[in-house]
Amino acid sequence: MLSKGNCIIGQSGGPTVAINASLSGVLQGIIESDAYNSVYGMVHGIEGLLQGSYLNLSEQFKTKESLDKLAITPSMYLGSCRFKLPHYEVAPEIYEILFNFFTSNDIRTVFYIGGNDSMDTVVKLSSYAKANNLSINIIGVPKTIDNDLPMTDHTPGFGSAAKFVATTMLEIAHDTYIYNIPSVTIVEIMGRNAGWLTASSALARTSYSNAPDLIYLPEAPFCLDSFVEDVKRIQKQRKNVIVAVSEGIKDKDGNYISATSTAVDAFGHKQLCGAGKTLENYLKDKLGCKVRSVELNVLQRSASHIASKTDIDESIMIGKAAVKSALEGKTAQMVCYHRMSNDPYYVDVVSHAIEDIANKEKVVPRMWINEAGNDVTEDMLTYLRPLIEGETVMGYANGVPVYCDITHLHTKTEQK
């Protein structure tokens, strides 16, 4: 086991309902192990640390009550960044700043919580430490509503986002069915290249509602003409058609249906411009009925009021497992869920080499999409159902939820 020193935790990428539960789990694991003297938190991820911004989390989270509140607080208590860390051979000065900080503050372990791009940061920090024979453990903790990290059965944050999508889809169905007029409602759901979240809309189906009637994922080629025919076929059975589409649906040549801009983000991802609205405008010219599109957008990411208890509990568990991995001397690893059973549902936590995960993407297996490419299979539903189970207990004041104070993220303060 490592001798006592300090550690630091960072969060980056997009927010989720469960990323603070993983942060709480790391803190709980540290307290239970008594393996570190102090725990620091990067404010706004690795980019914030480069600017000298960090907190002493040991001073802020000392009680079970504070850790429990953190676990149900949405988004990222420590703040985030979209900073692409360059390779150390390209920008050695950046690594000198970071590792000088680690050395001067006796940092023995870095825990970094995030998705695909965050795991790229874990790879690069680990590679620098290894190349320079530096004794510091770098552990990745997964999160992303997209569920697209390989080697893990699913990702913290996905189950809660899936629960939100399914619940919202059911509520849209109730909203839609009240009018005795033909209509088509297109619901656009996040998912650039992986359709996991859109697939979860199928969980909304009940004995009285088949919504969504059609589901389109990026993994199956999308054809506008076939889409129109699919909608017309459903219209022969029901006056209201509800469609779920991933933001990243593509044609047979791999072109995004919604991409009308050449803009890209810091990581080179193409900026998409509304698949739902694109399909709405196309259908209006083809059908003689009301057509509207709904974009769930950022609402999918931080809806703690509809969080999955399974997701929150597992996120705490994986945070604790990350501490265990560090204390076993592991580095350049990401902790992952391994599904042991569907009935009863049970997962274990294992660790995998980060180079097998970073800059790679897990997409929906084609066999979990029907042959026509407009729905998902029962195997997909079997995979999804356990992940949205259970509801969390939240505290309220003046009618709204009580979360952790994040004043440090939205006010200008002197950096340390």
UniProtKB/TrEMBL annotation:
Activity regulation statement: Non-allosteric.
Cofactor: Mg(2+)
Gene Ontology terms: cellular component: cytoplasm
Sites marked Important for catalytic activity: 143
Gene3D superfamilies the record matches: 3.40.50.450, Phosphofructokinase domain (3.40.50.460)
Keyword Metal-binding: yes
Top EC category: transferase
SUPFAM superfamilies hit by this protein: Phosphofructokinase
GO biological process: fructose 6-phosphate metabolic process
Reactions the enzyme catalyzes: beta-D-fructose 6-phosphate + diphosphate = beta-D-fructose 1,6-bisphosphate + phosphate + H(+)
UniProt KW keywords: Cytoplasm, Glycolysis, Kinase, Magnesium, Metal-binding, Transferase
InterPro entries assigned to the protein according to its UniProt record, in alphabetical order: ATP_PFK (IPR022953), PFKA (IPR050929), Phosphofructokinase_dom (IPR000023), PKF_sf (IPR035966), PPi-PFK (IPR011404)
Chain sites annotated for binding Mg(2+): 116
Residues at which diphosphate binds: 14
Active site, per annotation: 146 (proton acceptor)
Domain Phosphofructokinase span(s) in chain numbering: 8-305
Main location as per UniProt: cytoplasm
Assembly and oligomerization: Homodimer.
Function, as annotated: Catalyzes the phosphorylation of D-fructose 6-phosphate, the first committing step of glycolysis. Uses inorganic phosphate (PPi) as phosphoryl donor instead of ATP like common ATP-dependent phosphofructokinases (ATP-PFKs), which renders the reaction reversible, and can thus function both in glycolysis and gluconeogenesis. Consistently, PPi-PFK can replace the enzymes of both the forward (ATP-PFK) and reverse (fructose-bisphosphatase (FBPase)) reactions.
Protein name: Pyrophosphate--fructose 6-phosphate 1-phosphotransferase
Organism: Zhenhengia yiwuensis
Gene name of the encoded protein: pfp
